[in-house]
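Hi support team,

I'm filing this because I wasn't sure whether my run with S-adenosylmethionine finished correctly. The job status page said complete, but I'd like someone to confirm that the output block is well-formed before I use it downstream. Pasting the exact inputs I used:
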Amino acid sequence: MTASGALNPTPGSLYVVATPIGNLDDISARALKVLNDVALIAAEDTRHSARLMQHFGIGTPLAACHEHNERDHGGRFLARLLAGDDVALISDAGTPLISDPGYHLVRQARAAGITVVPVPGACALIAALSAAGLPSDRFIFEGFLPAKTVGRRARLEQVKEEPRTLIFYEAPHRILECLVDMQAVFGAERPAVLARELSKTFETLKGLPLAELQAWVEADSNQQRGECVVLVAGWQAPEDDAAVSSEAMRVLDLLLKEMPLKRAAALAAEITGVRKNLLYQAALAQQKDA
Ligand code: SAM
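And here is everything the job wrote out:
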């Protein structure tokens, strides 16, 4: 690491360091080394990070780099970097820039020709995806949804027919209304997983169709606490209507005369062995055409 103040110094590097999302044992040996060795740590919340540094016996000075000052004060960190000091960027938990501050600083540093080095580690969305049991070969991360229903539903509508696994961050006090809106937009049957309090004492990963997941969360107020990630299976195009035999359609039509669509599809599925969702979609298509 270069000392600051040298004439025409080699610029320092900006290390983007992931910290734990709960379990402090998840910090990496490399993260600890970097945090010890740099001249300055740019932290989202210096009081919060001071406790973490104390835990690991790290005495490196901390300076605030949060949402509100990042754009304006980025220059302060840039000056130190250009003077030859190495700087680490951390957020309150997990990987900086992932629904956390740091984007402007990283962008400014790269534009100034400073080497930016990622020091990978915990990230809630990746931890959740790795254990959710939903397709993980392709996925999209939507971050936090808007706080109000109208905005939230509008955003969900945009990804309604997205075939890749969908990943969202959500605040605990909004988890229930979020699941209600997801159900309204994606449908009751869409598989979903709630990943809560990852790496902590009350870690929970619950996978159910959206309607059942919402009922489960509603019935247990403990599930409305702590930090959570919601994962939703990507949209699957309904198979060709022709896949529903005419016999299955006949049964479905009879049942539709007696009961609501959802119940009729469920019962017809039991009688005929055809997938419930397929029957549901076929009935919807039929109603649209009528
Ligand atoms: N930068 C962090 C990361 O790498 O995951 C995310 C920061 S964002 C401000 C905080 C959100 O991440 C929480 O509201 C929650 O959605 C998710 N999150 C963070 N820690 C979590 C945990 N231990 N379990 C589940 N979700 C978590």
